Amino acid sequence: MSNRLKGKWALVTGASSGFGAETARQFADMGVNLLLGARREDRLKQVAAECLERGAASAHIHKLDVADTASVNAFVGWAKATTCRVDVLINNAGGAHGVERIEDGRDGDWETMFQSNALGILRVTRAVLPLMKPHPGGIILNIGSIAGRVAYEGGSAYCASKAAERSITKSLRLELNGTGLRVGTIDPGMAETEFSVVRLKGDRAKADAVYKGVTPLSAGDVAEAIVWSANRPAHVCIDEILIMCTAQAAPYKVHRSEG
Ligand code: NDP
Ligand code: 8X3
Known about the structure:
By secondary structure, this protein is of the alpha/beta class. It has helices at residues 18-29, 41-54, 69-82, 107-132, 156-175, 195-199, 204-210, 219-230; strands at residues 9-13, 33-38, 58-63, 88-91, 139-143, 182-188, 191-192, 217-218, 240-243, 248-250, 253-254. The strands form 3 sheets. The chain has a 7-stranded parallel beta sheet, with helices on both faces. A two-stranded parallel sheet has the order 7-8.
């Protein structure tokens, strides 16, 4: 496979674990310069060290809370002081909080999901675009979910926040038409990361049960789809990828083996 990413600058949000960390590692394998953000700086440091070992051209980290405009602007100001360009933006930061039905839902959970999964993408994209527009051929990939396409019980706010991601991606694709910048969404189904531990408020046993009897996607599987999309030639835009493990045919249709 041709490596069109060597020496390019990639900014990854939510790079401290899961898809974001693995995407950073796979970009590192291709000799990319990395700008990595998340709230847990200790974890970012660890990921950056691994990326340098794996061949990243450079790996820079800075604290980022995508739910806070001031934090996003400070992060992008730092990125601008580090480099004059961003070629690849991966809007990955986010997650789910709670599995309650609407009648039992909590304001805090709903607000957190919309802040990170929907408004976070808007904030980060607005701030980063000036670093991308002078460089046609760049790409913005937002991380959506099967949940943004199919609603399920107990997922109302999460599904809605990912449906918002889908609409934001489509609007951005239209707005950037003619600039040479590409825009797409990568929509995974169930993948074993810290996602379920976060969603289930740290209950590890319940989180493990989500994947019982299934071989779910790994962070590596999803990162491969992200990196492959980013590595297409400049005239090719992968608008969307829906990626699920073989055992999952829909959010609520998962075949589990016994034992
Ligand atoms: P993880 O929990 O492993 O990773 C989530 C990442 O997002 C962490 O790096 C976390 O960093 C970061 N993050 C969360 N909130 C914020 C915030 N406010 N500001 C900055 N960073 C933030 O889960 P995944 O890797 O699975 O999730 C990544 C994305 O993929 C999410 O958008 C999720 O909704 C989506 N997704 C996940 C699926 C799955 O089944 N795993 C399937 C489909 C989509 P930190 O806490 O350090 O800030
Ligand atoms: C995460 C996948 O099916 O839990 O976005 O909503 S699912």
